[in-house]
Structures are given as structure tokens and as C-alpha cells.
Design a protein that fits this description.
The chain is α+β, with helices and mostly antiparallel strands. About 20% of the residues lie in helices and about 25% in strands. Strands 1-2-3-4 form a four-stranded antiparallel β-sheet. The termini are far apart.
């Protein structure tokens, strides 16, 4: 069974604005999916690609 996890920082935007991504450890990497549309499928990335993504987020490189 796959266990999907959501960040403890998710859901801070008020009712109805829960823009969250869930992550799960999969056999072939890490899965990422939209928590509001779980049935839409997921992306699978390598642990290194996920670590790079987190680093870019933390550094503010992906801020809009």
C-alpha cells in the first residue's frame, strides 16, 4: 500500500484554497500528486530530482 503525505505547511490559505502536493515513496522513485485531484495520476521523480526541487523552493528560485 502506498502512503501519501502532505506537508504540515499545507492548507494555510483559508477554506477552499488548499493548493497542496502530496508525496509518496514508490518502488521506482518518489511520487508527486495533486491532493485535490488524487485520481488524476502522479509524476514519478528520482530522489535526486526531488531533493533538487526542494532546494530550489527553499532558496526562493521558484517564487512567482
Amino acid at each position: 500500500m502506498t502512503t501519501w503525505r502532505k506537508s504540515s505547511h499545507s492548507g494555510g490559505g483559508g477554506a477552499g484554497s488548499q493548493e497542496c502536493v502530496e508525496v509518496a515513496r514508490l518502488r521506482d522513485g518518489l511520487g508527486l500528486r495533486d491532493s485535490k485531484d488524487q485520481g488524476a495520476g502522479h509524476l514519478t521523480v528520482s530522489p535526486d530530482a526531488f531533493a533538487d526541487l526542494l532546494g530550489r523552493i527553499r532558496a526562493g528560485h521558484l517564487d512567482l
